[in-house]
Design brief:
Blueprint (H helix, E strand, L loop, with lengths): L13 H5 L4 H11 L10 E2 L5 E2 L35 E6 L4 H13 L4 E5 L2 H4 L18 H14 L2 E5 L4 H12 L10 E5 L1 H8 L1 E2 L2 H19 L3 E7 L1 H5 L4 H21 L4 H6 L1 E7 L3 H21 L10 E6 L11 H16 L3 E3 L12 H17 L13 H23 L3 H6 L2 H18 L36 H12 L6 H11 L4 H9 L5 E2 L10 H17 L4 E6 L3 H16 L4 E3 L7 H9 L5 E5 L5 H14 L4 E5 L6 H7 L3 E3 L5 H11 L6
Parallel strand pairs: 3-4, 3-11, 4-5, 5-6, 6-8, 8-9, 9-10, 10-11, 13-14, 13-15, 15-16, 16-17
Antiparallel strand pairs: 1-2, 7-12
Helix pairs in contact: 3-5, 5-6, 6-19, 6-20, 8-19, 10-12, 10-15, 12-13, 12-15, 13-14, 18-19, 18-20, 21-26, 23-24
Length: 697
């Protein structure tokens, strides 16, 4: 189709009438709409330190990103994208009871999932001998008997298995293989074990076999998988621990890159060639709320890894790693949890645009406890709609050609590469973990995120903004697991495993010996201990796992408890002065601001005089008030109204708006503080709840 096509004849050439608008024309129009404010007001600063302008044009076009499937692989791992059917739809399995987890797997596969993400609980991940009781954060999988129902179901459906087992990944993998050999040979198994010793260490705080011992096990796994299970990737890079501790996309990319490079070095020192090591690699990223940043993050990773792997001597066809995107647990809320469906769907869309090979969408009610059937069904169906109904999986590099996305990909890649070089200069990823500097950096990054949440620069819909005090909290009963199947016997096989672990040959035989021990009845904990063979564990302080809404939701929890005990919530009276047009904008702001912390806002149509407002306050039952009106009215009414409210029994009087030059005078008149855009919402609400006796810390 060309401009001379007859179908365009009926449309006038408007450029001949109005001319072709230039960028300067747009700037003038934009500045006019801002009514004198500078155009910089439209620039957004991201957590990565980037200044994102309001408009991108061809002048912002990045360097040529290449072609899909070819170096630098920015546009995709393969020439045709993830495949003819799009990405692999993966369902999370994290119920402590292995039998329930197996049932969930069957249900989700029946709904369209073709893979599962098996999350093993910390009691097993950090086990050394007999695992402790489950703490409910994953499947309590200990023996072959525990694993058998799940493995049999996956084998029957031909579904892929992705494992999240931390430092116990080799032992859990041996148990799963032992359970599945009756159903299908290991050669037919597909998926990824994603064994990342460094991520396991910072997540759980311990590697039972020590860091060197863990890399010994990884080398054995890599050789075994290459020979016996070519569809199963053993080595992994898991950036979720950094993401959940406050990292931005730049840190996730840089530290993921440093982890992957260290894995190649460690494997090479144990006889695994770089090409073979790369074939074993899978990478996991959390996908947060910022659609464009998250899509660009995945595209930037492929570019960065292609460059780093090439520098390590990896042939171009072997460089791309399997890319697994998981909807971020950091963004999930327990309040207004149905909004989580939108958040996770945006995450799935970003993952698809970024070219993920595997996508796991989390259930919207996951933060409240074990998800119910609706939560799990929506998690699977949301990405099925994107893939099957919207045909997003049939598009190669959906974001390619977007000036903004290409620019953002370049910027993230450049910043992350410089950060990666800094890690390398300090001795590599393990060094910055062991010396504590990585944890220190994350503490600073998390503090910045906390400030952004507290000031509502990063609002959380339904929690810090637009809360619903009438909403009943979503309740999920705690998950329990039955006692694991008997873990006994296998003394002879465990003895052989101890001996093999003492002097690994890096020929994959150690894995076969572990499989034999599992088959004979040994549980995961005893296999972990045998693989460690008495090595000194490596320990660090585990990284915190935070959700963005934690601070606000704790305040709401305290308010709910107060309501349950006293029959009413803490209240604040809105002293609205003047016509609706004067007070309504700030009254609406105040309602959302205070009710986010569980403080009920008593709104009203407004009052003509301070005396009327004070009289209404006296009979409302509240002990706090906030003055709401216009900047023009404040100098006239604030001194009189604040004094009148105090006389009527107000313990705390606030004002909605910025005080400017009047702050000292208004504080002297009785105004205790000011709430406005940019106020520290969390601290203000916490202070008020302490005054009310709702909080005691």
């Amino acid at each position: 189709m060309t401009d001379s096509d007859p179908m365009f004849d009926e449309f006038p050439d408007l450029s001949r009438v109005f001319g072709t608008p230039s960028l300067d024309d747009w700037r003038r129009a934009a500045e006019a709409s801002l009514k004198g404010r500078p155009l910089d007001k439209l620039t957004i600063r991201t957590h990565e330190g980037l200044a994102v302008g309001p408009l991108f044009t061809a002048a912002d076009a990045a360097a040529d990103p290449g072609y899909p499937g070819l170096a630098p692989h920015t546009r995709g791992r393969t020439p045709l994208g993830p495949g003819a059917d799009g990405w692999s739809v993966s369902a999370e399995l994290a119920h402590p009871d292995p039998g329930i987890a197996a049932r969930w797997a069957a249900e989700e596969i029946g709904r369209g999932a073709d893979a599962v993400l098996l999350v093993v609980d910390r009691a097993v991940r950090a086990a050394d001998g007999e695992p402790a009781a489950t703490d409910g954060d994953g499947v309590h999988l200990v023996t072959v008997a525990d694993a058998a129902p799940l493995v049999e179901g996956l084998a029957a459906a031909g579904a892929a298995l992705h494992l999240d087992a931390g430092g116990a990944a080799p032992a859990v993998a041996a148990t799963l293989v032992a359970a599945g050999r009756r159903q299908r040979p290991a050669h037919d198994v597909r998926g990824a074990l994603c064994f990342d010793p460094i991520a396991a260490l910072v997540r759980d705080g311990v590697l039972v076999a020590g860091l060197d011992g863990a890399y010994d096990q990884l080398a054995e796994l890599a050789v075994w998988a290459d020979r016996h299970a070519p569809g199963l990737r053993s080595a992994g890079v898991d950036t979720l621990p950094y993401h959940l501790a406050g990292a931005s996309a730049v840190e996730e990319l840089a530290w993921g890159l440093a982890t992957a490079v260290q894995a190649l070095r460690e494997l090479a020192s144990r006889g695994v060639a770089p090409d073979a090591a790369c074939r074993q690699l899978s990478v996991r990223f959390a996908i947060g709320r910022d659609l464009f940043t998250e899509a660009a993050k995945l595209r930037a990773w492929r570019r960065l890894w292609s460059r780093a792997a090439g520098a390590c001597g990896v042939a171009e066809p072997e460089r791309p790693a399997l890319l697994h995107a998981i909807a971020s647990p950091r963004g999930l809320t327990t309040r207004d949890p149905w909004v989580n469906m939108l958040r996770t769907t945006v995450g799935a869309f970003a993952a698809a645009v970024g070219g993920a090979d595997v996508v796991t969408v989390l259930a919207f009610d996951r933060a409240a406890g074990p998800p119910d059937d609706l939560g799990r069904r929506m998690a699977t169906n949301s990405q099925t709609i994107l893939r099957e109904e919207s045909h997003l999986g049939r598009v190669i590099d959906p974001g390619g050609g977007s000036w903004y996305l290409e620019w953002l990909t370049d910027e993230l890649a450049e910043l992350a590469w410089r950060r990666f070089q800094g890690v390398e200069a300090r001795g590599g990823m393990a060094a910055v973990v062991l010396d504590g500097s990585l944890a220190g950096e994350l503490a600073e990054l998390q503090a910045a995120r906390d400030r952004a949440l507290a000031t509502r620069r990063d609002p959380v819909t339904g929690v810090s903004s637009f809360p619903n005090l009438a909403e009943r909290p979503l309740e999920r009963p705690p998950a329990t697991a039955p006692p694991p199947a008997t873990d006994g016997g296998a003394a002879e096989e465990l003895g052989r495993l101890h001996a093999a672990a003492r002097a690994p040959l890096f020929d994959g035989q150690l894995v076969e010996t572990a499989i034999a021990a599992a088959t004979a009845g040994a549980g995961v904990g005893r296999i972990v201990a045998a693989l460690a063979d008495g090595a000194e564990p490596t320990r660090v302080g585990p990284l915190p796992r935070r959700r963005e809404a934690d601070a606000i939701e704790r305040l709401r929890d305290a308010s709910d408890a107060w309501l349950e005990e006293n029959g009413s919530r803490p209240r604040i009276f809105l002293a609205n002065l003047g016509p609706v047009a004067d007070h309504k904008p700030r009254a609406a702001f105040a309602v959302g601001f205070f009710e986010a912390g569980g403080i009920e806002a008593l709104d009203n149509p407004g009052f003509a005089t301070p005396a009327e407002a004070a009289a209404a306050f006296a009979g409302c039952g509240a002990r706090m008030a906030v003055i709401c009106s216009s900047d023009e009215r404040y100098p006239e009414i604030v001194p009189e109204l604040a004094a009148a409210l105090e006389a009527a029994g107000a313990r705390t009087v606030l004002l909605a708006g910025r005080p400017g030059e009047h702050e000292a005078a208004w504080r002297e008149a009785g105004v205790a503080g000011f709430v406005h855009i940019g106020s520290d919402q969390v601290r203000t609400l916490a202070d008020l709840l302490r005054e009310e006796g709702v909080l005691h810390v």
